[in-house]
Amino acid sequence: MQTLQNRFQYLEKDLLGRGSFGRVYKGKDTKSGEAVAIKIMDMTLFDDQFMIDALHKEIEIMKQLQHPNIVKLIETFGDAKQTVLIIELCDGGDLRHFLSRHGGMLEEALAQSVMQQLMLGFQEMIKGGYIHRDIKPENSLIHKNVHKVADFGFATKADITGRQLIRDCVGTPIYMAPQLLQNTAYTAKCDIWSIGVMAYEMLYGRQPWPCRDINSYLLNIKSSPLKFPIEKKVSEQFKDFIKKCLTVDENQRVGWNEVFKHEVLKISQEDRKYDNFQVDEVSKQILANIQKIIQAKNLNVEQQFKTFDQDKGGYLDLNEFNNFIQALDPRVTNKESEHLFKLVDKSGDQKVSIDEFKKLFCDYDYSNLKDIAERLIVDLKEIIKANNLKIEDIFKNFDKDKQGDLDFDEFTKLCHIVAPALKNEEIQVVFTKFDKNNDKKISFEEFKRELSYGTDQDSQFNPAKEKANKILSELVRIVKQNNLKVEQIFQNFDKNKNQKLELGEFQQLCKVMDNSSTLEESSLVFKLVDKNQDNLVDFQEFSALFK
To answer: How confident is the model at residue 460 (pLDDT cuts 50, 70, 90)?
Structure first.
């Protein structure tokens, strides 16, 4: 048993953690009987005065900030060899572990409660004239179900009104405001951005933008609008809070006074408002694919609208909308495009306005919220794009045995270099997603297919064939759903009774079966069905579709 100042006791075996400059033990305050954290800093490891001054600054800040929602500094003492901090023990872990215990994301009411508590701590900090500069889930600790702001190692005095420019680049990149990521001057509003990122993560279990490396992260913040996953209903008030915190331009970002007064911090369940936008599964899948392409190519949605608004009337009619959708993704069929048009044309005037257009493509994220592998693949694609990497070169470099595939060990090494933040369990999930045939190896085709969808390296696909397969599947579905006789259908359209369908006859068949199909689409299907490439579809080829 070690005793300090005749008051604080700890055992060597009760080590909570070890860092670059010291150790933290679980101990006891014999005066109060409370468990405490005892942080012992080895001052001989502090090799310059700047680091010593930073430690003293952190201690002074913690002494001043006394609040139930800020981790309490109980006592500090030391000499030239060591400095000891006696800190309130938060045995409930941090917000990161709290999120994990709740499945990675929180229900809105619980997220609101956590945010309310932390904002009280931030309010005390701001009242003292300080900003934190490293707000993240790991720096929010829990003691007796109370959430507390912790770790003031990067905190500093600042003009809270936002008029003072600061230049020190500190913090954790994925929670940093874009001004810090760009190494430009910033204000006290930098913490507000970090709060917005953390709030988004609490609700949705992921970051607002792909963020596996700084280059791709910053590129996405600048080029991609903030979107909210369609799968989870969150109140308009909470989304408004996040939007205001995550405004890229600091001059336009909400200030501290407005943040503390925001209604999300006091609203009741009965007063929450939700938008009524709904999307069916078919539309969601189409839109998710289109969003991947928009993101992969860094397309400006508003500019795309103007490009396809041929008469410059401020609206897209059905034909213009179809051209836009199919220019983005040639795999989308005419029927699917028309289906989307009806979804977005809320006014029913057979026109899509720029506001309706932006709401569809910029307000919502249509990806599967629980598909971890897909999210990580998006991150990998963003890293490849932002750093101008070639998919083929990456594959060859890690295919060490030159067998034309990647085993799990080779794939793991690739991930650790391209995306070092990936955890081993995440790598396994991604590996399984790539390995389509479950042979425990990833072929180059599997590798490229996942990473090139929608990008400039998407050349290995045959969009026409994929589109034809979708149309064909729909035709087969219609026939089976309506219990139609295959032989009778064939005979009805075999006008010259030679037991073969010519292109024109086949196109008529497609049009009758699915009125939304175009001549171009039915021609694609015809080529797919015509197995022997004689420009005719015989009954054997036709009937094989329905077996």
So the answer is: very low
